[in-house]
Amino acid sequence: MKTLVVCGCSWSSRDPVYPNFEYGFLVARKLGYNYINLARCGMSNFGIRLQIDYALKHLNPDLLIINATGVNRFEILKDLDNNYDHNKGYDQVCFGDFDWDHFDHEHHINYGKTYDPQIWCDSIYTVISQEARRYQDIDPSRVDALKDFAYYVFDENIKAHNDYYVLQSGLLSILERKIPFLFSPNTFEYSEFDKTGLIEDHHHIDSFNWDFVPDKYYLENGAGHYAQFNPEIIDEAGNTTTHYPVSHHNSPYAHSIYAQHILDEVYKRQLL
């Protein structure tokens, strides 16, 4: 059986509690492919690059779907005495200790085998704000250092250029292997926070040219684009929102539209 591998952040993830209506599942089911989803909430573009590397080395994919993420994401050691080993790559990305996104350690593809969580991938805001349970035990001095980093050092446009080259290396490695794929910048050029990393400030950053990706493999609109098809719902606080209460943010209807668009393009571009 052929295999579809999905790489990305929360927009592409498979909710462990509410699976089987995300776009990756719908596409794989329609194609009759084995389905492997490596995406996870909070994933950085470096983390997505690790997903690509893992897929190419271990999963023998026949088709890849890759959505990039925002450049406010970064990587940080879980604890200062942790050690990141580049030879282990994706196995070192922590899946555990989430509270609102339904993921935990056992949802990593290699849990109980080679999984060795050493780093968190997430947005600078999420770590500094300590809203997530996983970050509430970080030493206050590390939080203060991150605040100084966000305000005095971090620049979203420099980070975007770094992330661009990180993703470029991954996509070129797929091209070198001659494996069909669809890549979308998704939320790459969409920033969520201001310079402090603490205040939400939704805005676009500088645009990038992805023309090194052949037209056959480039899909302009990613999963985030389809949030516009989410119906209005009432959240737990009684507020009206279109943010669907699942790890991948989108409703079954939004996913069905995106999945159908992917399928249409797969057939039209003869990616099978």
Question: What does this protein look like?
Answer:
This protein has one domain. It has six helices and ten strands; from the N terminus they run βαβαβββαααβββββα. The chain has helices at residues 23-31, 45-59, 124-129, 140-153, 156-177, 252-268; strands at 3-7, 34-37, 63-67, 73-77, 119-123, 181-184, 190-193, 200-204, 233-234, 240-241. Strand 7 (190-193) and strand 8 (200-204) form a beta hairpin. Helix 1 (23-31) packs across helix 6. The longest helix has 22 residues, at 156-177. The two termini are 13 Å apart.
Q: What distinguishing features does this structure have?
A:
globular, 272 residues, four-stranded parallel sheet, 31% helix, two-stranded antiparallel ribbon, alpha/beta
What is the topology?
Elements: E1 3-7, H1 23-31, E2 34-37, H2 45-59, E3 63-67, E4 73-77, E5 119-123, H3 124-129, H4 140-153, H5 156-177, E6 181-184, E7 190-193, E8 200-204, E9 233-234, E10 240-241, H6 252-268
Parallel strand pairs: 1-2, 1-3, 3-6
Antiparallel strand pairs: 4-5, 7-8, 9-10
Tell the overall outline. Answer: globular
Q: What's the total helix number?
A: 6
Terminal Cα span: 13 Å
**SS-based structural class?**
alpha/beta
How many structurally independent domains? 1
Average pLDDT metric:
92
Strand arrangement within the widest β-sheet reads 2-1-3-6
Order of helices and strands: EHEHEEEHHHEEEEEH
- Strand coverage percent: 15-25%
The count of strands amounts to 10
Low-confidence stretches: none
Largest sheet: 4 strands, parallel
Task: Compute the CA-based radius of gyration.
Answer: 18 Å
Helix content: 25-40%
